[in-house]
Amino acid sequence: MATEINKTVGDNVFLTTLDAAASWARANSLWPMPFATACCGIELMSTAASRHDLSRFGSEVMRFSPRQCDLMIVAGRVVMKMLPVLQRIWLQMPEPKWCISMGACACSGGVFDTYAVVQGIDRFIPVDVYVPGCPPRPEQLIRSIIDLQEKIQSGGTYNAREFKLRILPEGPQRFDEDELIRIRERNGFKLDPPTYDPVH
Amino acid sequence: MTNTTASSDVGDLQSRLSGEVPGVSLAWSTYQDQTRVVVPAADLLSVLQASKKIGFDQLTDITCVDLLEYGNATDRFEVVYLLLNIETSERLTLKTYLNEPDLTIPSATSVWFGADWLEREVYDMYGIIFAGHPNFKRLLLPQEFQSFPLRKDYPVKGRGERHNFPVITRAES
Asked: What is the ipTM of this complex?
């Protein structure tokens, strides 16, 4: 059938699915929300600046309003006072949305294994691509965006149905509540149940 | 900048401060050109006022030391005031000792208003209560935080506060 159409209209028409076209557009026009809390943020700025020039990959439109963005780049350590803010900003971003965890601190807490630093943001919000490094080079961040573009290209539907179907394997693992109880018992300490209610 | 405080001035400083607060037992010592004085907690506010009166017009810092299991220390907390006379570059380290359960000392905000955030930080990290502070609450940690993390009996990795959050998955966001 494609050959017959080719005979009629030549090379002027491309046939594809609407999903693939939407994914292609999404992958090449990512609007990052820079959640830069530490030195990784400097590398993030460097990535967007003229030397490394993130706009070559179609994602230079940094917006500081989460409602205009579809890619959150968490660059730097997140402390327990900041995490409710991070979650709230994540919930304010419209679907479809993705998250890059940039640097050792955002991925795992890094060297900051203390009472205040969250040991990896993927415990509490979903993460699509992890970038190792302390801090990562701009080239590594560019690589992660290319990887994310491939991920968007390979998945995704026009009406974003799959985001509703995504469940735990795509999101963070539930924190082992028994481990939390063990930590508390070991310290002879009882915390009140969480009162934080994420605002949608 | 030359150090204008010769060792002979230390005796002068002692007599000046003691003259302002007669009857208060001050324990003086020096270490590497630093003049230190230990003040009983009950007389702290009058000594701070007297220090300002004799020329220590800048409160550089307030900090605290938890002496739990430290050497042969007998007291639990040591609150340290670092004072500076801007005109003469004289410095004075003023200390007072506190023990549980009474961790209340008078606030220095009536003497130096810059003590505001310094005292809130000491409360935040050690739980020392400064009576008379105009806005007494935690400075850095969330208000609902229940511990004082720089105390030596607080575990470095915390008591699970960093894990105490809801998990947001793809399906929920």
From this structure: 0.80
